[in-house]
Amino acid sequence: MATSTAIFTATPFLLRPIADEFGVSLGAAGWVSTAQLAGFVLGSWTAGRHLRPVRWVFVALCVLGLVANLAAAVAPDLTLLGVARFGSGISLGLAAWFAWQDAFGDADKTSDVAVIGPLVGIGFPPALTILIEVIGLRWMFVILAVIAVSPVIFAGQVDVKDRLRPHRTRHAATRASIVMLFALGLVTLGGSSVYVYAAAIGTDFNGLSPFAVSLAFSANALVAVPAARWTGSRGPAGVWYFATAVMAVLLPSVHATPVFLFAVIGWGFVFFMGMPAAFGLLASKSRFPEERAGDAQAVMALGRVFGPLLGGAFITADRLVAMGLTAAVILCIAGSLMIYIDRARFTRP
Predict the structure, then answer these.
(1) How many angstroms separate the CA atoms of 112 and 235, rounded?
(2) Which of 39, 159, 307, 324 is the most exposed place for a label (fewest CB within 10 A)?
(3) Can you give the pTM of this predicted structure?
(4) Residue range 55-87, pLDDT digits in tens
(5) Distance (Å, rounded) from C-alpha 302 to C-alpha 320?
(6) How far is CA 53 from CA 6, 91, 207, 259, in A?
(7) In this predicted model, what pLDDT tens digit does every residue of 170-204 receive, in sequence order?
(8) How far apart are CA 43 and CA 230, in angstroms?
(9) CA 312, CA 306: separation in Å to the nearest integer?
(10) Rg (CA), the chain
């Protein structure tokens, strides 16, 4: 989870260098993020239905991450770069499924896995911006390749056979879990339409340096750590996505450094207060929570596929206020659905 989070964290900071390297607009560079997330959807969705968490799968996802990132380092044009990031996304989808399938339904494990992202995000963004400036985009992909394959050193700790569920079969999702999955997809659709462009908004529209923006992302991750590890009551999961909607409006609409910093940093806290609560709600409404792990990661990634496209259209048209308002509406719909699911009683699966 740490290595896959690092690769995903790099995406917002790579968009501007990619646009400059290939001579395209920022919105066009967003297609690279879309390609990677499309691969993530394929990897996580397929894994939950056709694979088991065994050693050969673990090794394969590490090797695939290595090859895909090395291919990105030598890609001659934006199209082939997108193909390489698609392969990277498949490996990331497999990694997310591998981690989450063991955590779903267990509050402590869910918090343990959820906190990995913020922990990585504290120090990685500043290091990333420095590395890109020093070694350039191509060599940055080489470093990401090394990061992607590094978990293979733990392959010996992964079972060769799925001893707990050797004959596991899939079960249909309940109606409540289907609605929850839809809501989670809306969360990432609305959130990513703004958040994936946060680094570019900070530099292009607020006049901040890339390093200053990276420090804001580090602060975002820092406040997310206690949010992810919160042991008390989180309240209704949907409420936190109403708060995220506020950040989604402020971040692109108000071009003032204090507001930008508040939105980026505040996003880290409210989003990670909501995510474990949402996963817990999904697990409580599922008869077989571990089977919904891959589904949840896939639908959330699907939202992240279309989110950058939606946000890219607004940012290309210089309609940043509309961008924030659209994202906020989507997030509010997701929050409302979660509150409904939390309170409704479903008498039949």
Answers:
(1) 19
(2) 159
(3) 0.76
(4) 999 999 999 999 999 999 999 999 999 999 999
(5) 23
(6) 22, 14, 46, 44
(7) 566 678 889 999 999 999 999 999 998 898 899 98
(8) 30
(9) 10
(10) 19
Contact assessment for residue 301 and residue 184, using Cβ atoms and an 8 Å cutoff = no
Can you read off the two tokens belonging to residue 13? 């900071």
Contact 120, 222 (CB under 8 A): no
| Dist CA 148 CA 144 (whole Å) | 6
- Which domains does the chain possess? 2-163+170-343 (1.20.1250.20)
Q: Examine the pLDDT at 349 and tell me if it is beyond 50.
A: no
The alpha helices in the chain, defined as continuous H runs, are 2-22, 26-50, 55-73, 78-100, 107-114, 116-149, 175-195, 198-204, 210-228, 237-253, 257-284, 289-316, 320-343
Contacts of 132 (CB under 8 A, 6+ apart): 13, 14, 17, 140, 210
Tell me how far apart the alpha carbons of residues 48 and 298 are, in angstroms, rounded to a whole number: 9
Is the pLDDT at 151 greater than 50? The verdict is: yes
Tokens (6 digits) for 187: 């969360």
- Token pair recorded at residue 93: 């989808």
**Residue whose structure tokens are 């090797």:** 63
| Mean predicted confidence (pLDDT) in 13-23 | 88
pLDDT at 167 over 70: no
Q: Which residues contact 172 (CB under 8 A, 6 or more apart)?
A: 349
**DSSP track, 121-158:** HHHHHHHHHHHHHHHHHHHHHHHHHHHHHGGGGGGGGS
Nearest in space to 274 (alpha carbons), one of 313, 315, 238, 327: 238
| % residues pLDDT > 90 (the chain) | 44
> Position of tokens 């995510």?
275
Distance separating alpha carbons of residues 253 and 247, to the nearest angstrom = 10
Average pLDDT taken over every residue of the chain: 87
